[in-house]
Amino acid sequence: MPNYNLVVNSQFKPFTYQELLAPALMATQAHEQLEDTYSNLAAKSSIWDNMTNAQTDPIAHKIYKTMISSLEAI
After folding, report:
1. How far is it, in rounded angstroms, from Cα 40 to Cα 53?
2. What is the pLDDT of residues 14-37, one digit of tens each?
3. How far apart are CA 61 and CA 67, in angstroms?
């Protein structure tokens, strides 16, 4: 007959508030960085909007507008 002598010395150590909050803060910072990057890209792309002119170069202007509308749809 087997002898099952098993001793478990587990102790409960709950997370601190800082340990619980750390992943949420990291995710928030990552989202804010992405938002800043997107706003910078939008500002830079508006320069191209001013460079393309519907009267002087309708093909380039149409390509640019199509690209911008597809990106805004995402």
Report:
1. 22
2. 999 999 999 999 999 999 999 999
3. 10
